[in-house]
Amino acid sequence: KLEEFLNFKQLKTSSKEAILMDYYTAGFWWAKEMNFSLIQLSGFMDLLNFLLENLSDKHMTLGDNLKELGKAMAGIGETDSERSGDLSFFSIEEAKAIIDYLNISLFKHYKLYEYLFHSPREQLVISNE
Predict the structure, then answer these.
(1) 128 located within any domain
(2) Which of 53, 59, 64, 120 has the fewest CB atoms within 10 Å, measured from its CB?
(3) Domain count of the chain?
(4) In whole angstroms, how far apart are CA 26 and each of 32, 86, 101?
(5) Total Cβ atoms within 10 A of residue 16
């Protein structure tokens, strides 16, 4: 279902699609193990997508993407509804767990994801010759 939702057409032959599928699948199962509600699960998956789009489309550095994460998570735990952001349905403990997860899954491997999105790769040609 995730493959369909992400509109991956070359999952078996594209290393980029396979890597992204693995990343989203791992994130989804981590969020399920955290017992996130449906809205929390959706918000978490949006956050994963947001951070990857920052890297792939906007060519953000690690530092800039960390700042964007900080902005996105600002106000979690605040009682004042004006200060809380789009992710206000997470508790402070859940926000800490999300940051820990993002650290080990994305930020520690940021250079690899930069390479995935921005480095030209040779195409392997396979034929019967």
Answers:
(1) no
(2) 120
(3) 1
(4) 10, 23, 10
(5) 14
